Amino acid sequence: MGGSTGGGPAVGGPGVGETGPQQVRAPIRVLLVDDQSLVRAGFRMVIDSQPDLVVVGEAADGRDGVRQAAALRPDVVVMDVRMPVLDGIEATRRITALQPPPKVVVLTTFDLDENALAAIRAGASAFLLKDARPEEMLAALRTVHAGDAVIAPSTTRRLLDHLAPARDPLAERAVATLTEREREVLVAMSRGWSNGEIAERFVVAEGTIKTHVGHILAKLAARDRVQAVVIAYEAGLVRPGEPTSS
């Protein structure tokens, strides 16, 4: 599975000749929750090969996943949807209610699991295909931990296009409170653009876009960018199959 992708931030990183105390960045702590031991073993092998990531625990069902999340306080939880005892949707809801809440990345199958959207509504920040390439999984974990969300051109965008969330009058009213520029930024977010990419498209400072994103999340009462994008779909602001760039 290829070990290091070369992209992991170096731990400790002061250059030669620098003096003073070195600040060593703590690795991102990951909890694996999946009832298939081979899946967990494969993920652990890839994650533990990186200097900035470490698997702190494993669980084979949702109830044990909730228990371990409360005890171990991971930064990111990789969560399967279909599991015995307690499914991944309810486990995600309970884990994201912890304070502070860890980020949850939902595992889904290639045939597009319809339960995955319910998991996003329950608090998950991203989707990850079980057969994703190692570098995709590592990038997803780092991106989610950094406070962003994996949308497009990732699995999340494809799943939202496939599942086509039903129109929701509450979502429509929430989106109606946005300014014209905020709606434009929300559409750009749904295309998976970063703040920097949106700023470049709109020819404004990245800080301006960051402010817009904060206003959007507040007005929509959205937990993060993924939830805001789901609301954009439910409001009809973004329609399935629209191009990811224009």
Describe this entry's structure for a reader:
With 246 residues, this protein is an alpha/beta fold. Helix content is 46%, strand content 11%. The chain has 11 helices and 5 strands; from the N terminus they run βαβαβαβαβααααααα. It has helices at residues 37-48, 62-72, 88-95, 115-122, 134-145, 155-163, 169-176, 180-190, 195-202, 206-220, 225-234; strands at 28-33, 53-59, 76-80, 103-108, 126-129. A 5-stranded parallel beta sheet has the order 2-1-3-4-5, with helices on both faces. α3 (88-95) links the parallel β3 and β4. α3 (88-95) packs parallel to α4 and α8 (180-190) packs across α10 (206-220). The longest helix has 15 residues, at 206-220. The chain is globular and about 50 Å long. The two termini are 35 Å apart. The model is unreliable at 1-21 (pLDDT under 50).
